[in-house]
Amino acid sequence: MKTYRYVLKLDIDWRPGDEWVEEWKRARILVLEKMYGYRVEHFYIAPSQRGFHAWIHIVSRERLRDEDVNRLQFVLGDDATRCKINAEKIKNGLGDWNRLFSRVIWRRKSKYYVRCEYCGNVIPLVGFVRKEECGGGDG
User: Fold this and answer.
1) Which among 86, 100, 84, 99 has a CA at the least distance from the CA of 46?
2) Which pTM was predicted?
3) pLDDT digits (tens, 9 = 90+) for 71-126
4) 84, containing H or E segment
5) What does the pLDDT look like over 21-32, one tens digit per residue?
6) Mode of pairing for the β-strands spanning 52-60 and 4-12
7) Minimal CA–CA distance to 63: which of 133, 126, 137, 5?
8) Could you tell me which residues come within 8 angstroms of residue 20 by beta carbon, excluding any fewer than 6 positions away?
9) How far apart are CA 136 and CA 64, in angstroms?
């Protein structure tokens, strides 16, 4: 049987305590697996400037349209404004509609990131800023 892999990306603009985040993570996995029937392969969370970003790798038995992925991200708690902007990008045929940005990384090209071993997405390490990147060094 053919399967399809997708990466759901969530922008959460608040960082509660670790216990809350772990419970939030378990709830997302339950929704995806029990309610929708997807298999969660990997779940990665990284801090962002205002909260955290989550990348959820799922396996589906059916092909999902971009609209389906955006809807799933909304159901899972992605920032509503981001979902609305993504819906417009999809409607206008933009292929690279599902990006997560961090203001620090966006404004300054940082050398600090990790590459997801599952999908190859670049995940910024927010908070790592070298002295010269702040204007205090030679670079």
Assistant:
1) 100
2) 0.73
3) 999 999 999 999 999 999 999 999 889 988 754 434 445 555 666 666 666 665 55
4) helix 80-91
5) 999 999 999 999
6) antiparallel
7) 5
8) none
9) 47
Token pair, residue 85, equals: 């902007």
DSSP 5-67: EEEEEEEES----HHHHHHHHHHHHHIIIIIS--EEEEEEEEE-SSSEEEEEEEEESSPPPHH
Q: What token pair was written down for 77?
A: 């708690």
DSSP strand pairing (122-124 vs 113-115): antiparallel
Q: For residue 77, what is the DSSP state? A: T
Say how far residue 85 (Cα) sits from the centre of its chain: 15
Q: For residue 122, give the H/E element and its range.
A: strand 122-124
Gap between the Cα atoms of 7 and 36, Å rounded: 15
Residue with tokens 């993504």: 86
> What φ, ψ does residue 60 adopt, rounded to 5°?
-125, 150
